[in-house]
Design brief:
Elements (H helix, E strand, L loop, with lengths): L1 H11 L2 E5 L5 H11 L2 E4 L3 H10 L2 E5 L5 H17 L3 E4 L7 H13 L4 E4 L1 H9 L20 H15 L2 E4 L4 E4 L4 E4 L12 H15 L4 H21 L7 H13 L3 H7 L2 E3 L1
Parallel strand pairs: 1-2, 1-3, 3-4, 4-5, 5-6
Antiparallel strand pairs: 6-7, 7-8, 8-9
Helix pairs in contact: 1-8, 1-11, 2-8, 2-10, 3-4, 4-5, 8-9, 9-10
Amino acid sequence: MLKECWKNVQERTPLVHNITNYVTVNDVANVLLACGGSPIMSDEPEDVEDITAICGGLNINIGTLNERSIQGMLRAGKKASELGHPILLDPVGAGASKLRTDTAAEIVKQVKLTVIRGNISEIKTIASGSGTTRGVDADVADAVTEENLPAAVTFAKELAKRLEVIIAITGAIDIVADGETAYVIRNGRPEMGRITGTGCQLSGLATAYVTANPEQRLEAVATAVTLMGVAGEIGWENMQPTDGNSTYRNRIIDAIYNMDGETLESRAKIERA
């Protein structure tokens, strides 16, 4: 599964339209290039329909909202829906403010999404329409742990079935689920949380993977999540004593660039649940 999904991205070079966080837009573009995809960035409402029409997939990230970008997200989302393109929503900080929560809810309502990827607090906000997050990080009380993992898997499956999407909950333990099947992934490093935008990068990565693997979208998202975690491990192994979080960000991107299917499969800590 992992090797096949990885190979399809290399061979098909998915072109992804990103309406994403201004803080991390450059990193998202570089991760897409590193994984074998190709990025286009545009959030201008008068531009987005034409741009998304020439792409294969759409990545919507609500991390830095304004009136113009919200309209761009909705117009691009509706156009991509009409064209049958896969669409990923990253509801960054949903629950932290009314604007973020309402915007995420409106996108879910108006756009035919393929994937929703976020931390557990953001995904719970999507499920309920309200919630509490600590900035754009997961509420510690809502962290997925080994103890509450079965309940979290059930929650992900039920929400995926209700919304007819793939749900990807990422954190120390990752869950990727549709209405019937879930994958639990335990790759990654806690130090990844010290870098701004690893989640944004993963959303771009997952959009590329789901675009290049239309026949196995659940497996594609699970592969992207695994790949990001493995890259975080390899990047950390390559750190030098004087390196810091800026270097670590680059080492993760380099690890994605240098990844091969065999390494991905051999290092994957993924199981079906």
